[in-house]
Design brief:
about 400 residues; alpha+beta; Methylamine Dehydrogenase, Chain H; three-stranded antiparallel beta sheet
Length: about 400
């Protein structure tokens, strides 16, 4: 690699790096193994600290058997180059900001329609014949070291810097909802079949008899299922009464914290099972609630007026949300709370040790997800924003 190119890369944005690489190699990169190998060498020269990662991605010695393999390896190599911005791993859309062919051409990528479709198919987009729309992310959940991403087509992907133990999702298809806990995960398919993986130390995965479900939730060592008739089923650890839900009726939504369970009925009232500090407000007195979200030890309820109720552990101010207005969606992290307004902006309260509540500049957001020490937002163009302890996951 020429020193001149290394010098050009110094101090430029990731988008500019990508553009420069494609200008150097052109469309023939897709079909030309020597140029692909040269690209790998360039990446090694630019990001020497990522040498082992790149070699692992291409550990078969760059053995190319099909165009599919070209595009997969190219995508992996480009993702490695931009590991300093880990969300790029979630698809080329983050860089190109659209899947329109003209956007690729504007970055110096001259691709045929066939090549474009192959690239889109192997970088997180729809696996249907028409690749005009991205495979949109509809849900993101977190464990301590991993991120679980559910796509519109029902596929689930796992990201993280540590091996996910006991989680084999290779046979998970057509999933419409996930529920993630520390040691076990649940999935609900579009045909309302229940899926599970992980530890069953406290019978939290004894769910094979559950049927006719419309929603699921998971605490650290217990699981909940909402049936179509408004009743709730539960299994797992019950030391704090978190599974005592047999008398619940007319439930429309469920959520779960570490050692408690919450249900929202069709009258806008919230029910509680388990142990939760109610010193801030008693959630049993809340009215006109339309949605609920649980952190490990706190609960937030969204009213039909766009205001919030909150109770539980409040050491970091994660429950100080009574002054928020025009909220349309809520998400609770371990020690912080995030709200999406009707204007597409985001508000947040709670612990900010890793910058996880620094969302004030986000605009045109349509979905939000809060995790242990991280907050993720997705805008109307499916661009992903991320603040907080990203290094925990990458």
């Amino acid at each position: 690699m020429e020193n001149k190119l290394i010098d050009i890369f110094t101090g430029v944005t990731v988008e500019e790096k990508l553009s420069l690489l494609f200008k150097k190699y052109g469309a023939s990169l897709i079909n030309d193994y020597p140029k692909f190998a040269s690209l790998i060498n360039d990446l090694l020269a630019i990001e020497k600290n990522e040498r082992n990662i790149i070699l692992n991605l291409c550990k078969d010695g760059f053995s190319i058997t099909s165009k599919h393999e070209y595009t997969r390896k190219i995508d992996n190599a480009i993702n490695v180059l931009f590991l300093q911005e880990p969300i790029v791993k979630w698809g080329m859309a983050t860089l190109c900001k659209a899947i329109d062919k003209s956007k690729y051409e504007a970055m110096g990528i001259d691709l045929s329609t066939e090549d474009l479709n192959i690239i889109l198919r192997n970088t997180g987009f729809s696996n249907q014949k028409n690749y005009s729309k991205p495979n949109e992310i509809i849900q993101i959940e977190f464990t301590q070291n991993n991120i679980f991403e559910l796509k519109l087509d029902g596929e689930v992907e796992i990201y993280g810097n540590k091996v996910v133990k006991n989680f084999d999702l290779s046979n998970w298809y057509n999933v419409k909802k996930m529920a993630i806990a520390s040691n076990h995960i649940l999935g609900l398919t579009k045909s309302n079949e229940i899926l599970f993986e992980g530890s069953n130390s406290d019978n939290q995965c004894n769910v094979t008899s559950w049927n006719d479900l419309i929603d699921i939730a998971a605490g650290n060592f217990h699981s909940l299922g909402l049936k179509r008739n408004g009743k709730v089923v539960a299994t797992g650890l019950n030391d704090y009464g978190q599974c005592n839900i047999l008398k619940w009726r007319d439930i429309e939504k469920i959520s779960s914290g570490n050692i408690f369970s919450v249900g929202l009925n069709n009258k806008g009232k919230v029910l509680l099972a388990g142990e939760l500090d109610l010193t801030i407000s008693n959630l049993l007195t809340w009215k006109d609630i339309v949605n609920i979200s649980c952190g490990n030890y706190h609960v937030v309820g969204l009213t039909n007026t766009g205001k919030l109720e909150a109770t539980g552990w409040n050491k970091y101010g994660q429950c100080d949300v009574s002054n928020w207005e025009n909220i349309v969606k809520i998400s609770c992290g371990w020690k912080h709370t995030v709200g999406l307004t009707s204007y597409g902006t985001v508000v947040s309260m709670g612990d900010n040790s890793y910058g996880e509540i620094e969302v004030g500049k986000w605009k045109d957001i349509k979905n939000i997800f809060a995790g242990r020490e991280i907050t993720i937002g997705i805008d109307k163009n499916n661009k992903i924003f991320c603040v907080g302890n990203v290094n925990r996951y990458y």
